[in-house]
């Protein structure tokens, strides 16, 4: 048995050991965080109907509200004999369940770089395109025991689609597509799913047009935009909608890094960083963040820091272009 299969067997054994299970994810959830947690809950509820399984988090997602809600928080006493499974969350400070540490044991399932390990048992596969891909592979490996239905498959497929850029990113492999195909065999309504994911309100299109007017590009090729509170009020944006601005910057020829700065309600500045060819996670780590090599985030506390970060990014891009030829 390979090391990977040994780890997954340990995960399955730990799940079977507990009658009470709490599943949580990271704050400000994306499709992968929601899809992987709802997907695992669905698999476990179908497979172990006698277990008390709760999906518990302190925040939600307007963008992904069509996938349905989660469970209400249990009393503290529930945690005493429970296993808490944290998915798609690299560091403890990002966990969206403030009471997770009350659990008897913590199981971490994640595909991010493991900078700050936590939990009694960890299953980490950084080469995966998403945590949902890990959940799909978990089901595939033990499908003689685990159960799946169309609703659960839809959650997992949604996370795979969104976290892989519709299967365009470098982390997508043949395994990714084979697992996605296995999920599609459950009869997922892709027309409905993609309509919910990608159709845009007219106001959002006007916001996108405004961003294209206001965005800037550094000399070496870093596209960037700062979304302040005034801009958010002007277009009636939720925080989640404002954070989507980073995707608007991705298609500029010659720009191999793009950064969005979003002012948050708590007065911090959320930073979303993306790149192609050149790894950018070191920059995120310098500014209170982390994530994947090409897709990551950070947190700033003053607007002036954004200028420093842009300058650092511009130097990184300049050095990369000077020493490599694999960029367009």
Question: Any overview of this molecule?
Answer:
The protein has 328 residues and is of the alpha/beta class. It has 2 domains: 194 residues, inorganic pyrophosphatase (n-terminal core), CATH 3.90.1640; 121 residues, Diaminopimelate Epimerase, Chain A, domain 1, CATH 3.10.310. It contains 12 helices and 11 strands. Strands 6-7-8-9-11-10 form a 6-stranded mixed sheet. The protein has a 5-stranded parallel sheet with strand order 2-1-3-4-5, with helices on one face. The longest helix is centred in the C-terminal third of the chain and has 21 residues. The protein is globular, with a radius of gyration of 20 Å. The N and C termini lie far apart (43 Å). The model has no long low-confidence stretch (mean pLDDT 95).
